[in-house]
Amino acid sequence: MKGLNRTWPPVERAMTEETVTVRSMTAGDLEFAQALTDGEGWGNSARDWKRLHSLDVGLIAEVEGVAAGICTANDYGELGNIGNFVVAPTQRDHGTGRALVEAALERLAECRAVRVHALMSSAGFYRACGFVAEGMSTHFRLSPEMHELVPFEVGDAEVESARSDWDELLALDARQFGGDRSRLLNTLADAVPEAAFAVEGGYILAKGEDTLYELGPWVVESGCQGWQRLLEAAMAALPRGATLEILVPSPNFRVTSLLETQGWEAVDYTVVMVHGEEWSDESNICARAGGDKG
Q1: What CA–CA distance (Å, rounded) separates 249 from 266?
Q2: What is the spatial distance between Cα 188 and Cα 191, in angstroms, rounded to a whole number?
Q3: Which of 28, 158, 187, 234 maximizes the CB count within 10 A of its CB?
Protein backbone atom coordinates (compact mmCIF):
# COMPACT_ATOMS: atom_id res chain seq x y z
CA MET A 1 0.00 0.00 0.00
CA LYS A 2 1.07 3.56 -0.56
CA GLY A 3 2.38 5.52 2.41
CA LEU A 4 0.28 8.31 3.82
CA ASN A 5 1.27 11.49 5.65
CA ARG A 6 -1.48 14.02 5.72
CA THR A 7 -2.11 17.14 7.76
CA TRP A 8 -5.76 17.84 8.53
CA PRO A 9 -7.26 21.26 9.26
CA PRO A 10 -6.31 22.54 12.71
CA VAL A 11 -8.68 21.48 15.50
CA GLU A 12 -9.37 24.12 18.15
CA ARG A 13 -9.01 22.88 21.73
CA ALA A 14 -8.80 24.79 25.00
CA MET A 15 -8.20 28.12 23.24
CA THR A 16 -5.19 26.70 21.33
CA GLU A 17 -4.82 25.26 17.84
CA GLU A 18 -3.57 21.71 17.56
CA THR A 19 -2.88 20.02 14.24
CA VAL A 20 -3.97 16.43 13.57
CA THR A 21 -1.57 14.51 11.31
CA VAL A 22 -2.31 11.03 9.97
CA ARG A 23 0.53 8.81 8.77
CA SER A 24 1.32 5.15 8.16
CA MET A 25 2.04 3.04 11.23
CA THR A 26 5.68 2.08 11.87
CA ALA A 27 7.21 -0.68 13.95
CA GLY A 28 7.84 1.88 16.67
CA ASP A 29 4.08 2.45 17.00
CA LEU A 30 3.14 -1.15 17.78
CA GLU A 31 3.48 -0.85 21.55
CA PHE A 32 1.22 2.23 21.50
CA ALA A 33 -1.31 0.43 19.29
CA GLN A 34 -1.44 -2.56 21.61
CA ALA A 35 -1.84 -0.31 24.65
CA LEU A 36 -4.91 1.31 23.06
CA THR A 37 -6.57 -1.98 22.13
CA ASP A 38 -5.67 -3.40 25.56
CA GLY A 39 -7.52 -0.45 27.05
CA GLU A 40 -10.62 -1.53 25.14
CA GLY A 41 -10.26 -5.16 26.24
CA TRP A 42 -10.06 -6.45 22.67
CA GLY A 43 -7.36 -9.06 23.27
CA ASN A 44 -4.97 -7.97 20.51
CA SER A 45 -1.57 -9.46 21.30
CA ALA A 46 1.87 -8.22 20.33
CA ARG A 47 1.90 -10.99 17.72
CA ASP A 48 -1.41 -9.70 16.29
CA TRP A 49 -0.01 -6.22 15.86
CA LYS A 50 3.16 -7.53 14.22
CA ARG A 51 0.94 -9.50 11.82
CA LEU A 52 -1.15 -6.43 11.01
CA HIS A 53 2.00 -4.35 10.56
CA SER A 54 3.33 -6.92 8.07
CA LEU A 55 0.25 -6.18 5.94
CA ASP A 56 0.98 -2.42 6.00
CA VAL A 57 -2.60 -1.56 6.95
CA GLY A 58 -2.06 0.57 10.07
CA LEU A 59 -2.61 4.31 10.42
CA ILE A 60 -1.55 6.58 13.28
CA ALA A 61 -3.06 9.96 14.17
CA GLU A 62 -0.82 12.47 15.91
CA VAL A 63 -1.77 15.71 17.64
CA GLU A 64 1.13 18.16 17.72
CA GLY A 65 3.49 15.24 17.09
CA VAL A 66 2.12 13.02 19.88
CA ALA A 67 0.43 9.72 18.97
CA ALA A 68 -3.30 10.03 19.65
CA GLY A 69 -5.16 7.27 17.78
CA ILE A 70 -4.95 4.21 15.53
CA CYS A 71 -6.90 2.28 12.93
CA THR A 72 -6.33 -0.27 10.20
CA ALA A 73 -7.49 -0.04 6.58
CA ASN A 74 -7.61 -3.33 4.66
CA ASP A 75 -7.89 -3.08 0.87
CA TYR A 76 -9.46 -6.15 -0.76
CA GLY A 77 -9.85 -4.61 -4.21
CA GLU A 78 -13.59 -4.15 -4.68
CA LEU A 79 -14.14 -4.10 -0.92
CA GLY A 80 -12.37 -2.44 2.00
CA ASN A 81 -12.53 -2.67 5.77
CA ILE A 82 -11.72 -0.26 8.60
CA GLY A 83 -10.96 -1.80 11.98
CA ASN A 84 -8.97 -1.59 15.20
CA PHE A 85 -10.12 2.01 15.50
CA VAL A 86 -9.25 3.57 18.87
CA VAL A 87 -8.56 7.15 19.91
CA ALA A 88 -6.74 7.81 23.18
CA PRO A 89 -9.28 8.88 25.85
CA THR A 90 -7.71 12.32 26.24
CA GLN A 91 -7.98 13.00 22.49
CA ARG A 92 -11.62 12.08 21.92
CA ASP A 93 -14.31 14.50 20.74
CA HIS A 94 -11.74 16.86 19.23
CA GLY A 95 -11.58 15.73 15.60
CA THR A 96 -8.84 13.10 15.92
CA GLY A 97 -11.18 10.20 15.15
CA ARG A 98 -12.74 11.96 12.20
CA ALA A 99 -9.30 12.61 10.74
CA LEU A 100 -8.38 8.93 11.08
CA VAL A 101 -11.56 7.71 9.38
CA GLU A 102 -11.22 10.21 6.54
CA ALA A 103 -7.60 9.13 6.01
CA ALA A 104 -8.66 5.47 5.97
CA LEU A 105 -11.40 6.20 3.42
CA GLU A 106 -8.85 8.06 1.30
CA ARG A 107 -6.55 5.04 1.37
CA LEU A 108 -9.50 2.82 0.35
CA ALA A 109 -10.84 5.24 -2.26
CA GLU A 110 -10.67 2.63 -5.06
CA CYS A 111 -12.95 0.25 -3.15
CA ARG A 112 -16.60 0.40 -4.17
CA ALA A 113 -17.70 -0.29 -0.57
CA VAL A 114 -15.93 0.13 2.78
CA ARG A 115 -17.23 -1.49 5.94
CA VAL A 116 -16.69 -1.20 9.67
CA HIS A 117 -18.06 -3.29 12.54
CA ALA A 118 -18.99 -0.51 14.92
CA LEU A 119 -19.51 -0.91 18.62
CA MET A 120 -23.01 0.17 19.58
CA SER A 121 -21.65 3.30 21.25
CA SER A 122 -19.76 4.31 18.07
CA ALA A 123 -22.56 3.89 15.52
CA GLY A 124 -23.56 7.56 15.66
CA PHE A 125 -19.99 8.65 14.99
CA TYR A 126 -19.74 6.49 11.86
CA ARG A 127 -23.15 7.64 10.69
CA ALA A 128 -21.85 11.22 10.86
CA CYS A 129 -18.91 10.09 8.70
CA GLY A 130 -21.26 8.88 5.96
CA PHE A 131 -21.65 5.20 6.90
CA VAL A 132 -25.05 3.47 6.71
CA ALA A 133 -26.13 0.68 9.05
CA GLU A 134 -26.40 -2.64 7.19
CA GLY A 135 -27.03 -5.21 9.91
CA MET A 136 -25.63 -6.76 13.07
CA SER A 137 -22.98 -9.26 14.09
CA THR A 138 -22.92 -11.29 17.30
CA HIS A 139 -19.75 -11.77 19.33
CA PHE A 140 -19.76 -15.23 20.96
CA ARG A 141 -17.42 -16.51 23.67
CA LEU A 142 -16.76 -20.04 24.93
CA SER A 143 -15.29 -20.16 28.44
CA PRO A 144 -12.44 -22.55 29.29
CA GLU A 145 -14.85 -24.50 31.52
CA MET A 146 -17.29 -25.06 28.64
CA HIS A 147 -14.46 -25.68 26.17
CA GLU A 148 -13.30 -28.61 28.29
CA LEU A 149 -16.83 -30.05 28.37
CA VAL A 150 -17.77 -29.83 24.67
CA PRO A 151 -17.73 -33.29 23.05
CA PHE A 152 -15.98 -33.32 19.68
CA GLU A 153 -17.13 -35.82 17.09
CA VAL A 154 -15.19 -34.94 13.98
CA GLY A 155 -16.15 -38.32 12.59
CA ASP A 156 -15.23 -39.39 9.08
CA ALA A 157 -15.40 -35.96 7.49
CA GLU A 158 -12.37 -35.32 5.29
CA VAL A 159 -10.94 -32.41 7.24
CA GLU A 160 -7.51 -31.47 5.91
CA SER A 161 -4.93 -28.80 6.55
CA ALA A 162 -5.99 -25.48 5.05
CA ARG A 163 -2.70 -25.40 3.15
CA SER A 164 -3.45 -28.70 1.39
CA ASP A 165 -5.04 -26.92 -1.59
CA TRP A 166 -4.33 -23.27 -0.89
CA ASP A 167 -5.13 -21.93 -4.35
CA GLU A 168 -8.62 -23.44 -4.25
CA LEU A 169 -9.18 -22.08 -0.74
CA LEU A 170 -8.30 -18.57 -1.93
CA ALA A 171 -10.58 -18.94 -4.94
CA LEU A 172 -13.43 -20.14 -2.71
CA ASP A 173 -12.99 -17.18 -0.37
CA ALA A 174 -12.96 -14.71 -3.26
CA ARG A 175 -16.19 -16.19 -4.62
CA GLN A 176 -17.98 -16.01 -1.27
CA PHE A 177 -16.51 -12.78 0.12
CA GLY A 178 -16.42 -10.77 -3.11
CA GLY A 179 -12.86 -9.48 -2.79
CA ASP A 180 -9.23 -10.59 -2.68
CA ARG A 181 -8.24 -11.40 0.91
CA SER A 182 -5.22 -13.54 0.00
CA ARG A 183 -2.68 -11.44 1.93
CA LEU A 184 -4.81 -11.48 5.08
CA LEU A 185 -5.56 -15.21 4.82
CA ASN A 186 -1.88 -16.05 4.38
CA THR A 187 -1.01 -14.34 7.64
CA LEU A 188 -3.88 -16.06 9.48
CA ALA A 189 -2.98 -19.50 8.12
CA ASP A 190 0.50 -19.01 9.56
CA ALA A 191 -0.77 -17.53 12.84
CA VAL A 192 -2.34 -20.72 14.24
CA PRO A 193 -1.63 -23.48 11.67
CA GLU A 194 -2.83 -26.22 14.01
CA ALA A 195 -6.39 -24.83 13.78
CA ALA A 196 -6.41 -24.07 10.04
CA PHE A 197 -8.61 -26.63 8.26
CA ALA A 198 -10.42 -27.18 4.98
CA VAL A 199 -13.07 -29.54 3.64
CA GLU A 200 -14.62 -29.74 0.22
CA GLY A 201 -16.43 -26.42 -0.12
CA GLY A 202 -15.20 -24.68 3.03
CA TYR A 203 -12.40 -23.68 5.39
CA ILE A 204 -11.71 -22.20 8.84
CA LEU A 205 -8.72 -20.23 10.23
CA ALA A 206 -7.90 -18.70 13.61
CA LYS A 207 -5.68 -16.26 15.46
CA GLY A 208 -4.56 -15.99 19.06
CA GLU A 209 -2.20 -17.61 21.54
CA ASP A 210 -1.93 -19.01 25.06
CA THR A 211 -5.34 -18.60 26.72
CA LEU A 212 -7.35 -16.66 24.08
CA TYR A 213 -8.12 -17.57 20.47
CA GLU A 214 -10.53 -16.14 17.90
CA LEU A 215 -11.94 -18.40 15.19
CA GLY A 216 -12.50 -16.92 11.76
CA PRO A 217 -12.82 -16.47 8.92
CA TRP A 218 -15.01 -19.54 8.60
CA VAL A 219 -16.32 -19.65 5.03
CA VAL A 220 -18.35 -22.29 3.20
CA GLU A 221 -20.12 -22.69 -0.10
CA SER A 222 -23.78 -23.65 -0.40
CA GLY A 223 -24.16 -27.37 0.04
CA CYS A 224 -20.91 -27.84 2.00
CA GLN A 225 -21.43 -31.04 4.00
CA GLY A 226 -18.56 -30.57 6.44
CA TRP A 227 -19.21 -27.02 7.60
CA GLN A 228 -19.85 -28.08 11.22
CA ARG A 229 -16.83 -30.39 11.23
CA LEU A 230 -14.59 -27.43 10.44
CA LEU A 231 -15.54 -25.70 13.69
CA GLU A 232 -15.25 -28.87 15.75
CA ALA A 233 -11.83 -29.71 14.31
CA ALA A 234 -10.53 -26.21 15.06
CA MET A 235 -11.93 -26.28 18.61
CA ALA A 236 -10.39 -29.71 19.25
CA ALA A 237 -6.99 -28.48 18.01
CA LEU A 238 -6.84 -25.57 20.46
CA PRO A 239 -5.87 -25.85 24.14
CA ARG A 240 -8.84 -27.00 26.22
CA GLY A 241 -7.97 -24.41 28.87
CA ALA A 242 -8.29 -21.51 26.40
CA THR A 243 -11.17 -19.08 25.93
CA LEU A 244 -12.51 -19.08 22.36
CA GLU A 245 -14.26 -16.21 20.57
CA ILE A 246 -16.08 -15.91 17.26
CA LEU A 247 -17.87 -13.09 15.40
CA VAL A 248 -20.95 -14.33 13.51
CA PRO A 249 -22.88 -12.31 10.91
CA SER A 250 -26.52 -11.96 11.94
CA PRO A 251 -28.84 -13.52 11.10
CA ASN A 252 -26.93 -16.75 10.46
CA PHE A 253 -29.21 -19.04 12.40
CA ARG A 254 -27.57 -22.38 11.70
CA VAL A 255 -24.29 -21.09 13.13
CA THR A 256 -25.81 -19.36 16.16
CA SER A 257 -27.90 -22.45 16.90
CA LEU A 258 -24.82 -24.67 16.74
CA LEU A 259 -22.83 -22.39 19.04
CA GLU A 260 -25.64 -22.20 21.57
CA THR A 261 -25.89 -26.01 21.78
CA GLN A 262 -22.16 -26.14 22.53
CA GLY A 263 -22.34 -23.60 25.35
CA TRP A 264 -21.08 -20.49 23.57
CA GLU A 265 -22.39 -17.23 25.09
CA ALA A 266 -23.38 -14.10 23.16
CA VAL A 267 -21.39 -11.38 24.94
CA ASP A 268 -21.94 -8.32 22.75
CA TYR A 269 -22.99 -7.07 19.33
CA THR A 270 -21.58 -4.83 16.61
CA VAL A 271 -23.42 -2.73 14.05
CA VAL A 272 -22.26 -3.52 10.52
CA MET A 273 -21.93 -0.17 8.69
CA VAL A 274 -21.02 0.51 5.05
CA HIS A 275 -19.66 3.54 3.21
CA GLY A 276 -20.30 3.60 -0.55
CA GLU A 277 -22.22 0.91 -2.39
CA GLU A 278 -23.91 -2.16 -0.94
CA TRP A 279 -21.72 -4.94 0.44
CA SER A 280 -21.68 -8.35 -1.20
CA ASP A 281 -23.94 -11.15 0.07
CA GLU A 282 -22.34 -12.96 3.01
CA SER A 283 -24.89 -15.68 3.66
CA ASN A 284 -22.10 -18.28 3.49
CA ILE A 285 -19.70 -16.42 5.81
CA CYS A 286 -20.11 -18.36 9.06
CA ALA A 287 -17.61 -16.19 10.94
CA ARG A 288 -15.58 -13.11 10.15
CA ALA A 289 -11.87 -12.56 10.71
CA GLY A 290 -10.69 -10.73 13.79
CA GLY A 291 -9.74 -7.10 14.17
CA ASP A 292 -12.95 -5.61 12.82
CA LYS A 293 -14.16 -3.68 15.84
CA GLY A 294 -14.07 0.06 15.97
Answers
A1: 12
A2: 5
A3: 234
E strand or H helix that includes residue 104: helix 96-107
Nearest to 214 by CA among 201, 205, 222: 205
Report phi then psi at 282, rounded to 5. -120, 35
Residues 182, 188, 192: CA angle, nearest 5 degrees: 150
Q: Which domains are present in the chain?
A: 5-111 (3.40.630.30), 138-287 (3.40.630.30)
For 237-284, how does the pLDDT look when each residue is reduced to its tens digit (9 = 90+)? 999 999 999 999 877 889 999 999 999 999 989 999 999 999 888 778
Between 166-177 and 182-191, two packed helices, what is the crossing angle to 10 degrees? 130
DSSP string, 153-176: --TT---EEGGGGHHHHHHHHHHH
pTM of the predicted model as reported, rounded to 2 decimal places: 0.89
Three-class DSSP category at 97: helix
